[in-house]
Amino acid sequence: MTMLSKNEKVQIIESRLRGLEYKKFGLEIDLLVENAKTTPDSESASNIEGAIQEVSVQLSVLNSELADVNALAE
Questions:
Q1: Residue 60's CB: how many other CB atoms inside 10 A?
Q2: In the chain, where are the structural domains located?
Q3: Is 34 helix (H, G, I), strand (E, B) or coil?
Q4: pLDDT score for 74
């Protein structure tokens, strides 16, 4: 069993969420740049879109975990 406090757990999850939000935004910028090319590489764009989807799933899981941790008693 972990000895972290509820507040510490929330801080860790929120920190990870921020990191993933930065990552997702960076990927969205990468996709904009790829699509702005005269001849966008469809495989690169597809890979970036897949990475964005993967990060979105991770964000969803962490938001769910954050809700669970916030529901814990102090």
A1: 10
A2: 13-70
A3: helix
A4: 80
